[in-house]
């Protein structure tokens, strides 16, 4: 069984399966009533998870859906983004980020990122605001919080919404508050390789905004509304075209078991990040420099190296499941040909795309695992 879980890597991207095995009894107890009771129980389990997750994030509301991709898209739609609008974002992200915008009929407008922590360069945002701009979509890449607090005054000046992509940052804090605290709506992913992953797919949006919350509920439930005054009780009424994409209740049950451990797992991810940073100091690898106010999580630990593809391949040959996230920048994808007129004016984004290599981080890693990763990475980049 182990060989399939680690895919043959000595240090796989994730060892969450070990934690899941340790939680076996709790998982089975949480899942059993869902299988044996009526379907009504599912809605309650999902609602309980939403309330508990919102509380953990210091938010008033949460709506759990089928994936992080969908959470981000729904957050955009619920914030009123639609055809003809422009949304300012970054190009060093997953395609889910830009697709959340284009799938609303809006146009992504990209700005460069900071070389220090790879998140949106706040100083470039205002120059890109046009009369069509409706929102800003910062990404907490790799678990590094974007400086959303600093974006807030820009958003206020131009009446823009901020929708934060925290797919990789569940558990991170900024300015003493959970990520998402400074955005109008924030989307998290519950996919297995994310810092707070389920046993399948999932995503969740948090917000403090009553209107966004009502829109989220409406859109996530087909657009279903209470009956009109003159309608027979058996008839339906829809006031929007929505979707049927709730988080599967089995995943909600699993995430309820996991939520109380999030803080301790995040602390372990941070400790692994610190150990890797210290262990690679003095080598040619550049490590992320995070703002002192931020308390990141590490979905992975990113190093920047000169021989990216070679280092990536040699790490994998040595049993370390390194990945390259995300390269090239989304501006290069064929599907976006011609969409980004300033694609050649993103020097930091381009450089990161050529240099980044992501080392695995998983709370289950032992001191020996981390030592092996440090020694192996040092010897590969120094040879
Ligand atoms: C930055 C970012 N946003 C959004 C997503 C989408 O999340 P999901 O895989 O749950 O759809 C991902 C997934 O990798 C991501 O990395």
Description:
The chain has 13 helices and twelve strands. By secondary structure, it is α/β, with parallel strands linked by helices. The chain folds into two domains: 13-260, Type I PLP-dependent aspartate aminotransferase-like (Major domain) (Aspartate Aminotransferase, domain 2, 3-Layer(aba) Sandwich), CATH 3.40.640; 261-382, Aspartate Aminotransferase, domain 1, CATH 3.90.1150.10. The chain has a seven-stranded mixed sheet, sandwiched between helices. Helix 4 (40-56) runs parallel beside helix 9 (249-258) and helix 10 runs parallel beside helix 13. It starts with a helix and ends with a helix. Bound molecules: pyridoxal-5'-phosphate (PLP).
Present as ligands are: pyridoxal-5'-phosphate
Detail the poorly predicted runs: none
According to CATH, what is the class of the largest domain? Alpha Beta
Task: Could you tell me the CATH topology label of the largest domain.
Answer: Aspartate Aminotransferase, domain 2
Average pLDDT rating = 96
Distance between the termini: 35 Å
CATH superfamily of the largest domain: Type I PLP-dependent aspartate aminotransferase-like (Major domain)
